[in-house]
Amino acid sequence: MSIDSNITESGRRVAAITGGGSGIGEATAHRLSADGFDVAILDIDSMRAESVARSVTDFGGSTLAIQVDVTSSESVNSAFAAIHSWRKGPDVLVNSAGIINIAAVTECSLADFRNVMEVNVTGTFLCAQRAAQGMIEQRYGRIINLASISAERAGVGRVAYSASKGAVASLTRQLAMELGAYGITANSVAPGPIKTAMTREHYTPETTQALESMIPVRRLGNVDEIAHAIAFLSSEGASYVNGIMLAVDGGYLAAGVNVTGKVHG
Questions:
Q1: Of 140, 161, 182, 252, which one is the catalytic site residue?
Q2: Which pLDDT does position 209 carry in this prediction?
Q3: d(CA 113, CA 163)
Q4: Catalytic annotation on 140?
C-alpha cells in the first residue's frame, strides 16, 4: 500500500522501519517523517502498518506499508524489493521488530526461546543484510538496531529476551566493522524501561514502583524519547558514530547504590 503526498520532494532520503506498526517503531516513523524522510513501514500486521502509514502522511512525506515476516528470508527480500521499486535504498534501516517472553530459565520452553531468538536476532540479521546490499551500492547508509538494557543487565524471567538483545548488540558491532568502509554506520539503541503495548502487561504498579526507584530520573521512559535517539543516529550529524550501543534509560545502567548514609537524591 502506497500513500503519497503531493508535496513530497524528490531526493528525500528513505527510511525503512520494521515493527513500524506500533510502539517504538510507530513513534520512529512519525519522528523520521517529520525530519524529512519518506518512510516504509514494515510490520507483520498489515493493518497496523497501513494505519501508521496514513497517519505519517500528516507530515507531508510519502509512505509505504508492507506486510513482512522478518524471520523469513523470502518475505524480507520481497519487502526490500518493494521498497526499491517504490523509491530506492533504503538509506536508513531501523530494526524495531521484536518480541518478549517471560519465563524462568528452568521453565522457558525451547520453542519459546527459539521464537524470541528468531524474531529479535535472525530478523535483525536478515533485514540488515538485505538493506546493506543496497547501501553498499550507494555508498551510504544508517542501520539502527533495537537492543535493550537487558543486553547488559539480567532480569528475572528474561532468559530468552536478554540473550537475544545481547546478540543484537554484538551483531551491531559486527555490522559496524564490516560496513564502515562503505559509508555505512551501524549502531544500536538500548531502551530502558519504556511504556509500550508490549511491556504494559508486565509493568504492574508494584513493578513500576520498583523500577522507578532504581532509575535516577525516577520515571519510566516513553516511545518518543527512544525515537529521538534513533533520529539522531539516522542523521548526517551522526556520521562518525559507529558501533555503539546508546542506552536511553534515564541513567539505569549508570546507577549504583542510590542511598548512601543520610544522602538521598
A1: 161
A2: 85
A3: 9
A4: no
The per-residue pLDDT for range 19-62, each reduced to its tens digit, is 999 999 999 999 999 999 999 999 999 999 999 999 988 767 79
The order of strands in the sheet holding 63-67 is 2-3, 63-67, 38-43, 14-18, 92-95, 141-146, 184-191, 245-248
For the segment 210-232, the average pLDDT, to the nearest whole number, is 93
Q: Angle, nearest 10°, between helix axes 73-86 and 123-138? A: 30
Report how far residue 6's alpha carbon sits from residue 215's, in angstroms, rounded to the nearest whole number. 45
- How high is the pLDDT of residue 210? 83
Q: Please, what sign has the CA dihedral across residues 22, 25, 28, 34?
A: negative
Residue type, 133: Q
Task: Report the C-alpha gap between 263 and 139 in whole angstroms.
Answer: 53
Q: Which domains does the chain have, with CATH numbers?
A: 2-249 (3.40.50.720)
Question: Amino acid identity, residue 31?
Answer: R
Q: Please state, in angstroms and as integers, the Cα–Cα distance from residue 251 to each residue in 5, 121, 157, 170, 181, following that order.
A: 40, 26, 22, 22, 33
Q: Which residues pair with 64 in a beta bridge?
A: 2, 40
What is the three-class DSSP state of 174? Answer: helix
Which pLDDT value is given to residue 212?
85
**169 SS3 class:** helix
pLDDT at 264: 47
The three cell numbers locating residue 31: 519522528
